[in-house]
Amino acid sequence: MERAEIVAVWAGEIASTTGPLPGSQLDAMPTPYGWCGRVHGTTPHLANAATGRIAEVYGLPTNAVIVETTDGGGVFLWAYRTPSAADYHRHWPQPVIDGTEFTDVARSGSGSSLLDYVRLTEMARKHQADWRDLRGGRPVDVQRFTRRLTLLRAGVFDILARSRPDQVREVLLRVGVPAESLPDDVLRALDYPIGGLPTVPRARGVAFAPDNDRTDRISGSPNS
Length: 224
Known about the structure:
Blueprint: H1 3-14, E1 25-31, E2 34-40, H2 44-49, H3 51-57, E3 65-69, E4 75-80, H4 83-90, H5 114-135, H6 142-160, H7 165-175, H8 184-190, E5 207-210, E6 216-220
Antiparallel strand pairs: 1-2, 2-4, 3-4, 5-6
Helix pairs in contact: 5-6, 5-7
């Protein structure tokens, strides 16, 4: 559909006095997979309630209309021609690590913060736990595994925009994420070691014991 047709259908079927969002206005733009646009004169709650009717009047599949809330409580719509495109959108890892996930902590500078690395570490631990269960033959929710892997991959590339590859690589290595559990593009971007973890220098007189997370913990001095 062209923009003029999208707007005309909205005005006649959705924004009319008998429509689900009377008086609203759609600033639409066609996309390769349907259309999108900002909606004025309504709320996210009302727009969500109207998605079924919107899909119907535009001849779209059920659940193919997605409502997102913009800054200030505005409404932005995504309308897709296929269920798979809408499903893919819903499973986007957005936002991941964009510097705004900790709204109560003021950022300083344009680089990555400690909280960014905390978030990345959390993602890596969840992925590593699922991978360990999968390789161990234990029951794993495949959809959750895929979601966590996608989140970790997106988080790596987000934080790489503000960090050095070796800094990000160190986070994953400390968690114990094996190379075989990561996509090839992540391995290349981080120059990730393949075939085993690198040797970590250890201080003399201190004994280390490997734990289940493949991170070494100090167990005490052998001379004590």
